[in-house]
Amino acid sequence: MTIHFLSCGTMQPYFPPVRNGVTCFLVETNQGPVLVDTGFGTRDYISPNRSMKFFLTMMRSKRDVNETALYQVQRLGFHPEDVRHIIQTHLHLDHAGGLSDFPHAQVHVLKAEHDLVLSHGSWEYHPEHWAHKPNWVVHEIRGEKWYDFDAIKLEGFEPEIWLVPLTGHTPGHMAVAIKQDPGWVMHGGDAVPFDMKVDEVNEWITKKMLGPHLPRIREFMKAHAEVKIVGSHMSWEFYDRI
Questions:
Q1: Three-state SS annotation for the chain
Q2: Are 209 and 202 in contact (CB under 8 A)?
Q3: Pairing of strands 32-36, 20-29
Q4: Tens-digit pLDDT profile for residues 89-111
Q5: Which pTM does this prediction carry?
Q6: Which of 23, 134, 172, 237 is 20 to 30 A away from residue 89, measured at CA?
């Protein structure tokens, strides 16, 4: 099984002055291609609302529809309808914009994230991303473990896929771990720092922005070299290398 590492959006903010992407995975599974996060969607670039236009301007986004998950899925030889499952680490505007480009997909989220977006408004969430009323699949912790993390195994998928709640950045934020022999690949979402620079970040700022998990992630990386962790926002060179 293959994991394709995609950047579904370019951001080049004035501060910090780093050119980074929005990491999405396309995982080839026994149930067809599965997307982990969807980045910016075609609507965000073609007809953004006022707040999205402001955000893209501040991030100096390229606004190139060829970067969207929809276009990249097709370039990899799949049809949009082939994507029957999407897993969202969380639903912030730079992570969930592509949901509406795959309206037939089941969308896997943690219950806390689902309940939040359906009951509270925030500039960080754009309800038009799920205005098509997707088929939500809502998950809660039920006593399973991935390594020593509370986790939820998605039943029926090969390779194995685990949802790993790492709340803090949002109330329902999670990482997603995928088996890739001889180890694992984990999408850490926004619970991990830019470019996975776990030893170069201010702990206080990181805790405020990303949540409380950095010390645990740092120790986990030291103990488990077989697990490759990728963050939501990596330097552009990362995507060029893979």
A1: CCEEEEEEEEECCCCCCCCEEEEEEEEEEECEEEEECCECCHHHHHCCCHHHHHHHHHCCCCCCHHHCHHHHHHHCCCCHHHCCEEECCCCCCCCEHHHHHCCCCEEEEEHHHHHHHHHCCCCCCCHHHHCCCCEEEEECCCCEEECCEEEEECCCCCCCEEEEECCCCCCCCEEEEEEECCEEEEECHHHCCHHHCCCCCCHHHHHHHHCCCHHHHHHHHHHCCCEEEECCCCEHHHHHHC
A2: no
A3: antiparallel
A4: 999 999 999 999 999 999 999 99
A5: 0.96
A6: 237
Spatial separation of the C-alpha atoms in residues 147 and 143, rounded to whole Å: 13
Q: Are 185 and 224 in contact (CB under 8 A)?
A: no
35 is written with which tokens?
A: 């997307």
CA distance 47 to 217: 38
**For the segment 209-242, what is each residue's pLDDT rounded down to a tens digit?**
888 999 999 999 999 999 999 999 999 889 877 6
Length of the chain: 242
The set of residues, in sequence order, having a beta carbon less than 8 Å from that of 115 and lying 6+ positions away, is: 172
Segments of the chain with pLDDT less than 50: none
Q: Are 73 and 33 in contact (CB under 8 A)?
A: yes
